Amino acid sequence: MTRILPPPSRIYLLRHAEAQRAAPGQKDFDRPLNDNGYAAAEIVADEAAEKGYKPELIISSTALRCRQTTEAIRRIVSPSTEFRFVDAIYNGTLDIYLSLIASQNDRQSVMLVAHNPTIEQTLEALIGHEALGRTLPHGFPTAGLAVVDATTSSWSLTDFITE
Question: Domains of the chain, with CATH numbers?
């Protein structure tokens, strides 16, 4: 498993907001956010803005629901924030998620906009099983934003935002 060492010193993990059920014949990849999902993405973006969370780089899945969740975040970040859309995140493994984050060693902060269960597994790999269980006893909710900071010897969950 890939190990992440700072930098980045702050990692934001955002699970996409709630999506519509697939229509007959529609691919999972193409499912858009539903009305609750749009609202939740905006609420989380507003709270992140109030707290001054502004990642230098946002890496998002190319799935429609992740791209739409990313758009809510786009309006609260600085003009210099870079956006990347990566096909490998959709159906990606824990190692892919960790490798994407670890390879950003020229950035102090990076956000990953992605899917469950792998986004939850990524958080668990960073902060540990016990901390994950205490923080998210019912799992990583849609539109949930975990803020994880580097400490001297590990990673620590600093904040968790949800609608």
Answer: 11-161 (3.40.50.1240)
